[in-house]
Design brief:
By secondary structure, the protein is mainly alpha-helical. It has 2 domains: about 70 residues, no CATH class; about 100 residues, no CATH class. The chain has 8 helices and 3 strands, in the order αβαββαααααα.
C-alpha cells in the first residue's frame, strides 16, 4: 500500500481503515490520544471495522491487566456530530502539533464541545478558513466560561480579564492575531 502520509499517527489510522475492509474487528496497539481521536472520528464516518479497540497498555501496577479501549462504543455514545468535531477541538486545545491553551485542558474542551455541539458544528470542516476561524473563536470563548457569551473577540476577553481580575499576562487568552496563527497550525 502506498501512502503520502509522513506522520506516523495518520499513517497508522490509514492502515486501520484499509484493514477494516476485510475484517470486522480491528485492534490498534498504541497508547496515544491523537490516535484515539482519529479512530473515534473515522469510526463515526463508517470508515473503520464494526468493532475497533485501541490497546492502551496495562492499567495500574498489575502488568497482567491489559486495557482495550472500545472505540466503537465511545463513538456511538458521543454521536456523529461530536465525532465530526472532535479532531478540530483536540487540535485547538493542544495536541502533538499545536500548543495547549493556558490552564484549559481536554476536559474543559470536551465539556464545551458536548454542551454546544450545535453551535460548534462548523468545526467539522477546515475548508473555509474564515468560517472555521469564527467557530474556533467561539469555542475558545466558551472555554473561558459563562461571562464570555456576549463577547465576540479574544481581544475583548483579554481586556475584560485584565481589567476585572488579577490574572497575570500569561494566564490571559491569546490575542486575535496569535489565535489566527494557532488556528492555521491546527
Amino acid at each position: 500500500m502506498f501512502s503520502s502520509q509522513e506522520e506516523a499517527d495518520t499513517r497508522l489510522v490509514l492502515h486501520a481503515i484499509k484493514l477494516s475492509r476485510d475484517h470486522q474487528r480491528t485492534i490498534i496497539c498504541r497508547d496515544d490520544t491523537d490516535i484515539l481521536v482519529l479512530l473515534v472520528y473515522y469510526w463515526g464516518k463508517d470508515a473503520l471495522a464494526q468493532e475497533v479497540y485501541m490497546h492502551a497498555g496495562h492499567s495500574g501496577k498489575c502488568v497482567t491487566r491489559e486495557r482495550f479501549i472500545p472505540v466503537h462504543h465511545i463513538s456511538t455514545k458521543l454521536g456523529k456530530a461530536v465525532c465530526k468535531c472532535l479532531p478540530a477541538t483536540h487540535a485547538l486545545s493542544g495536541c502533538d502539533t499545536t500548543s495547549a491553551l493556558y490552564k484549559l485542558g481536554k476536559r474543559t474542551a470536551f465539556s464545551v464541545l458536548t454542551k454546544n455541539v450545535e453551535a460548534l458544528q462548523k468545526l467539522e470542516t477546515f475548508q473555509d478558513v474564515l468560517t472555521f476561524l469564527d467557530t474556533a473563536r467561539r469555542f475558545v470563548l466558551l472555554m473561558h466560561g459563562k461571562k464570555t457569551k456576549t463577547l465576540s473577540s479574544l481581544n475583548e476577553l483579554r481586556f475584560l480579564l485584565a481589567t476585572t481580575t488579577d490574572k497575570p499576562a500569561t494566564a490571559l487568552p491569546p490575542t486575535e492575531d496569535a489565535f489566527e496563527q494557532h488556528v492555521l497550525r491546527a
